[in-house]
Specification:
Helix content of chain A: 25-40%
Order of helices and strands of chain A: HEEEHEEHEHHHEHEHEEHH
Strand content of chain A: 15-25%
Number of helices of chain B: 22
Oligomer: heterodimer
Structural class of chain A: alpha/beta
Order of helices and strands of chain B: HHHHHHHHHHHHHHHHHHHHHH
Shape of chain A: globular
Largest sheet of chain A: 6 strands, mixed
Number of strands of chain B: 0
Distance between the termini of chain A: 45 Å
Largest sheet of chain B: none
Helix content of chain B: over 70%
Shape of chain B: globular
Chain lengths: 270, 558
């Protein structure tokens, strides 16, 4: 099954901003922290207009890979192109096309939700009027209007995720890179976010999202890449990767595990 | 239960030390320091035994006052270092079927494990040493020490648990952090002032009067939970055995009441979730929007205005920033007190002019130090953002925009304050003709500080208190090179402005105005250089800066 991944990766990297260039092309991407190789020789193409799921067990290298795509972490080796443009040679140009939602990084949480949105928009160089109009829209769409003036420090985990997502999209990027966007999100908000992302992809945008929940990926994404221990295990459309099975079952098969050793015979109500 | 909790705490302490060699080294250094302090105090107590005969009453008063300060200190400790040690946070036991009564003794004793607790215990047990020639009193001293030590721990645990209950909201945490900071500032200056006062009294005043004050203070303290345990040995030492028994009974009552209170608070803590809930709005409008509108920022100045606005909010709302303001403003006063303290012993008949010059010089030095520190306070700015700084990196903000926005966010209010303080101090110390030269020196110092911190905060990310933490939280990760570079760059900033400061001392007339102009120009040049160079460094080191910030963020270590 692993050969599917390598067969899909073109050997010649794209060099120009051509319509046929993939949204993101990753070649030989490698990052080592001390003695631990977090990401090892990853090759991956993410087609334009796709909703691309990025899955893997804890500590598999998902966040590390996404950080190298968005220009937040410098790779030790390998290259990343976004619409055919080398990310690490054209950081400013590439960053303006990407919207980012990192996982586990802080926000400027002494600002209110409204202010954080304005801040992010203005840092992007947008004008005040556009930022004001879009932030009102975004706060409404994500159900944050009532809490817009509260400090982000006082937000719940789900609200923090939502304001982070709003910050990621305010400049209408071509590519959204979202690390665990559905974590701690209630079903109502999850539906709203899915619809926003679906509309974005229908209009030609590209989304990369990481998740632990296979059901979410299977329902939402058209493509999926599986990473384990820093290496790409499989990539392709959901059907290709799932190979006739349920994605979760297939995922557990691929990354190994679930071979439980012995039963907990005592675990019953006494 | 007691054994389990003690074992747990011991395990946590050892595990923490094993985490890194640096921690272990620092711990050993602190242990050596504590040992030397203990040895000094114990030797002092034994030496005191030589002078005890005839001075029993004085010895009793000193024991009671010192012991009361100890208990008070332990009780105030959580106010200053709240959240510093949550390893045995009662809320963490909420999931287990335990009651406050069951937990209280174990948690009390577990709190004593660690350097400060052990050091306090040893010193407490030595309470009776001055009376070692009378074994019966020595025994009473050990009892005094044991019970007194218990009261220090009860005070500390009760205060910290009661605080953690009220500190579930962010606002209360902010406020407590600020209060703690002010307490430390006032206390450190207060201790200096009191010791100066005692010296003054001893040199110029009447020793008998000082004795009177001490005795009446001790008499009152002896009846409170602060002083009661120490009054046992005090009374016994004077031969009042019946009184000693009364104080013993009183102390036991206080201990039982304290443990009972602690158990009650624990019971409450076990059922109170510590989830932060605040419904307060940050402000009426959108500060980022307003500032950008008012400044009419266009093009690449828009991010600068946004960062300026964000800085303003943090200086106003984040205790880590706000706490620096009184600390910096207090410098002239602090140096003034030191100057006064030093010169008050001078013989007025011969050294009047020297004393006056020295005293004024100290205030002037404090004034300059204030300006320098105000500029240099920005050196921890990126570190204080912690990982939130990813927003600047991901949005492609230029280094110079980041640097300049932060500089302006402080300059806009700090420069007027420095000017105002400078004018008042010039009029108070010298006369109006000195204002231009004083101002020139102050501005050179302030702007040099700003320039150097703009450069170094992009170069070196050292561990600071994280967002939401107490501004007084100690960071042990700051080691060797980082520390050296921080103080080194502060000294460089001072040296760069030093020639102007020296000139300012002697400049009069037209020269004074020259100092002002040159100070502003020289400071502005260094500031601009700092912003440009710091910006370039930030542009090229962005990902490394984020990596350092991530490493310093305890959230990431999970």
């Amino acid at each position: 099954m692993e050969n599917e991944a390598s067969s899909m990766a073109p050997s010649v990297p794209p060099t120009a901003d051509l319509p046929q260039a993939p949204m993101v092309a990753i070649r030989g991407l490698t990052k080592t922290f001390g003695s631990m190789c977090a990401v090892n020789q990853v090759n991956l193409d993410i087609p334009r207009g796709s909703m691309y799921g990025f899955v893997g067990p804890n500590g598999a290298g998902k966040t590390t890979t996404l950080s190298m795509v968005t220009g937040l972490l410098k790779p030790d080796a390998g290259k990343v192109w976004v619409t055919g443009v080398d990310v690490w040679d054209n950081l400013t140009a590439v960053k303006s096309k990407i919207g980012v939602l990192p996982d586990r990084l802080r926000l400027f949480d002494r600002l209110s939700g409204q202010e954080l949105l304005t801040y992010t928009g203005l840092l992007r160089g947008m004008d005040r009027a556009t930022v004001a109009a879009r932030s009102a829209d975004l706060l409404g769409a994500l159900g944050l209007t009532e809490d817009a003036r509260k400090a982000v420090a006082d937000y719940s985990a789900g609200m923090t995720k939502k304001i982070g997502l709003a910050c990621a999209v305010i400049h209408a990027p071509d590519l959204l890179v979202l690390d665990e966007p559905f974590e701690a999100i209630d079903p109502v908000s999850a539906r709203a976010i899915s619809e926003i992302l679906g509309g974005f992809v229908r209009d030609g945008g590209t989304v990369i999202l990481s998740s632990h929940v296979m059901d979410t990926v299977q329902r939402l994404c058209d493509n999926v890449a599986v990473i384990a221990r820093g290496q790409l295990v499989a990539a392709g459309t959901i059907d290709q990767v799932a190979a006739g099975q349920d994605l979760e079952t297939r995922f557990i098969e691929m990354v190994g595990g679930a071979d439980s050793q012995g039963e907990l015979t005592w675990l019953r109500p006494s | 239960m007691v054994a389990t909790l003690l074992g747990l705490k011991l395990h946590l302490v050892v595990a923490d030390l094993k985490r890194s060699t640096a921690r272990l080294v620092i711990w050993i250094l602190f242990a050596l320091y504590a040992l030397s302090m203990i040895a000094m105090i114990l030797v002092g107590l034994i030496v005191a035994s030589m002078a005890i005969t005839g001075n029993e009453e004085m010895a009793s008063a000193i024991t009671i006052i010192a012991g009361s300060i100890l208990v008070m200190g332990w009780t105030l400790l959580p106010l200053i270092f709240f959240g510093a040690d949550q390893t045995l946070d009662p809320a963490r036991f909420a999931h287990f079927p335990v009651t406050g009564t069951k937990l209280a003794p174990g948690l009390l004793l577990a709190g004593a494990i660690g350097l400060p607790g052990l050091a306090t215990a040893v010193i407490c047990l030595g309470t009776g040493l001055p009376w070692w020639k009378t074994p019966a009193v020595l025994v009473m001293g050990v009892i005094s020490g044991l019970l007194g030590f218990l009261l220090t721990q009860i005070g500390c645990r009760v205060a910290s648990t009661a605080l953690s209950g009220t500190l579930s909201s962010r606002k209360a945490k902010d406020l407590t952090g600020l209060i703690g900071l002010v307490v430390v500032l006032v206390m450190s200056m207060g201790v200096y002032g009191v010791s100066m006062g005692i010296n003054f009294f001893a040199l110029n005043g009447n020793p008998a009067e000082a004795m009177m004050v001490a005795r009446s203070t001790a008499t009152v303290l002896a009846w409170t939970p602060l002083g009661a345990p120490w009054a046992i040995v005090g009374a016994a030492g004077q031969g009042y055995w019946l009184m000693a028994l009364v104080y013993l009974g009183l102390t036991l009552v206080y201990i039982v009441a304290g443990v009972w209170l602690y158990a009650k608070i624990l019971d409450k803590a076990l059922i109170t979730p510590t989830i932060a809930v605040s419904t307060a709005d940050v402000g009426k409008g959108d500060i980022i929007n307003s500032v950008t509108r008012v400044t009419k920022a266009q093009g690449s100045w828009i991010p600068v205005a946004a960062i300026l606005a964000r800085s303003l909010r943090y200086w106003r709302r984040d205790p880590r920033y706000m706490g620096q303001i009184p600390a910096i403003l207090m410098m002239p006063i602090m140096f003034g007190i030191i100057g006064w303290g030093t010169t008050s012993f001078a013989d007025p008949s011969t050294d009047a002019s020297i004393a006056a010059v020295l005293s004024k010089g100290m205030i002037a030095f404090g004034l300059g130090f204030m300006a320098l520190m105000a500029g240099y306070s920005l050196s921890a700015d990126v570190a204080s953002d912690s990982t939130a700084w990813w927003t600047h990196l991901a949005t492609g903000v230029k280094g110079w925009q980041d640097r300049l926005g932060r500089v302006l966010g402080q300059l806009i209010w700090a420069a007027p304050v420095i000017i105002l303080v400078g004018i008042i101090a010039s009029l108070f110390l010298f006369d109006a003709s000195r204002i231009p030269s004083v101002m020139g020196a102050l501005m050179a110092l302030y702007l040099c500080g700003l320039g150097l911190s703009s450069l170094f905060s992009a170069l070196i990310i050292y561990p600071v208190a994280l967002p939401g933490e107490s501004p007084l939280k100690m960071k042990t990760g700051m080691m060797g090179l980082q520390m050296l570079s921080q103080f080194g760059s502060l000294i460089i900033a001072g040296l760069l402005a030093l020639p102007l400061c020296i000139w300012a001392i002697f400049a009069t007339g037209v020269q004074a105005w020259l100092v002002l102009i040159l100070g502003l120009v020289w400071g502005a040049i260094l500031l601009i250089l700092g912003v440009i160079l710091g910006g370039k460094i930030m542009d090229s080191r962005g990902p490394q800066i984020l990596a350092s910030l991530t490493k310093n963020d305890s959230r990431e270590r999970a």
